Amino acid sequence: MRRALDYFPFPLMAERAWDKFYVPGGKPANASYKTVPMHTKDTPQELSELCIVANFVEIFLAREGHENPVGINYLEKIQIPHLPSLYGAMLAGVGYVLMGAGVPLKIPGVLDLLACHKPATYSLHVTGAEEGDDTTMTFVPSDFMERDLAPLARPKFLAIIASNTLATTMVKRANGRVDGFVIEGPTAGGHNAPPRGKLQLNEAGEPIYGERDQVDLEKIRELGLPFWLAGGYGSPEKVRESLAAGAAGVQVGTAFAYCAESGLRDDYKQALLAKVLSGDASVLTDSLASPTGFPFKVVRLEGTLSERDVYSARPRICDLGYLREAYKGPDGKIAYRCPGEPVSLYLSKGGKEENTVGRTCLCNALVATIGHPQVRAGRYVESGIVTSGDDLTGITRFLPPGEPLYHAADVVNKLLNG
User: Fold this and answer.
1) CA atoms within 13 A on the CB side of 293
2) pLDDT single digits (tens) 130-140
3) Rounded to an integer, what is the distance from CA 399 to the centroid of its chain?
4) Cα separation, 327 vs 133, whole angstroms
5) Which residues are within 8 A (CB) of 66 and not within 5 positions of it... i.e. 6 or more apart?
6) Positive/negative CA dihedral, 185, 158, 372, 78
7) DSSP H helix total and E strand total for the chain
8) Treating both helix axes as pointing N-terminal to C-terminal, what angle do 107-115 and 82-91 enclose, rounded to 10 degrees?
9) Beta strand segments in 152-242, E
10) Which of 185, 228, 229 is nearest to 207 (CA)?
11) What angle separates helix 45-63 from helix 11-21, to the nearest 10 degrees?
12) What whole-number distance in Å separates Cα of residue 267 and Cα of residue 381?
């Protein structure tokens, strides 16, 4: 991170972030991470700077040592950090921006403006907002620039979609160029698009997907844009199948999530690889876990929030707030609530009690899953939650004979040459 910041074009901003958050030697194991203000419509300058710096570092380090393009994936639903985050990634030369979990109609135009260091706006979805209410977020690059820069390369934009309707909408109504699609089916890890029509659940409480949830690839081909297929395409056979269907390629997540180089905690990774080998691994499409209301894939693993006792033992707290809902309060001002926060607090903000049932603090849990759990009062340590596609049981195809783990290169070689 220090090396990346040495290349950051605005050194004073980099030093402010470093001076505030760097802990020489690392924090003690029982110490808490320093918290930052939660994002709001009018984000404080310090937090916007941290977004810019963080996204720059992420892309800069990912680009080191090769000439291939690097992409970054955002959730449209996490709207407030979009503008500074995109600008930071673009300062580092991000080649692709991918976005799903919503309808990202305004992102292409934002990319056009930020490439020229021009002010950009983005409308925040505010529950209960009325016509005339100010819900517009504005980002002015010149407020952060310490010197003039040449125009930035405009990254290609890929919308992550789960229906033909959304693909057509993006082509017709986006405020700038859409460069392609990732077509993600309900077997993919993380958040899934909810089924179309009335929600029906199976005996395990999982949403049931039907024919209406299948994308017509012929209609996608008619749009004339490249597309990639995702959700169960992490095998050589599926790669060949996707290319034969006219796809530019596939998006693979699960296979890389469990490789040696991934950011998933080693203890989780080893335990799940053992479960896969023994035939005990399972994935649940949880219709309640995510505060967003979207179905979310959860891997059953001891010691994580997938277990009822671990979930019940966690005190409800919302101190990261990425998945909070913006709403119009009784005083007419924008306020924020989350179904994963303390129930009484959520209800006091006008939330419905039924929305709190089974909700998990994915923000803290997923940060814990990559090895950075928050420690509270020196005693309670946040537990993680592991997400994976339904193809989890198929990752044994990447294990070299007699080896307990595999590498990213093994995945690439198997998919392209298997």
Assistant:
1) 10
2) 999 999 999 99
3) 27
4) 12
5) none
6) negative
7) 14, 14
8) 50
9) 156-161, 180-184, 227-230
10) 185
11) 100
12) 15
pLDDT digits (tens, 9 = 90+) for 33-72: 998 999 999 999 999 999 999 999 999 999 999 999 999 9
Phi and psi at 154, nearest 5°, equal: -80, 115
Separation between Cα atoms, residue 258 and residue 271, nearest integer Å: 11
CA angle, 167 then 104 then 97, to 5°: 95
Is residue 201 very low, low, confident or very high in pLDDT (cuts 50, 70, 90)? confident
One-letter amino acid at 33 equals Y
- Residues constituting the chain: 418
Closest C-alpha among 16, 119, 111, 1 to residue 56:
1
Contact call for residues 284 and 204 (beta carbons, < 8 A) = yes
For residues 418 and 397, what is the distance between their CA atoms, to the nearest angstrom? 10
Residue type at 282 in one-letter notation = S
Rounded (5°) CA angle 325-328-331: 140
| CA geometry: angle 213, 411, 389, nearest 5 deg | 30
The helix or strand, by DSSP H or E, that contains position 277, with its residue range, turns out to be helix 266-278
Single out the residue of 244, 251, 254, 245 nearest to residue 228, CA to CA: 251
Check if the beta carbon of residue 259 is closer than 8 Å to that of residue 395: no
Helix (H, G, I), strand (E, B) or coil at 397: helix
With a cut of 80, say whether residue 398 has pLDDT above it.
Answer: yes
Q: What is the mean pLDDT of residues 261-278?
A: 94
Helix 82-91 to helix 45-63 angle (10° resolution) is: 40
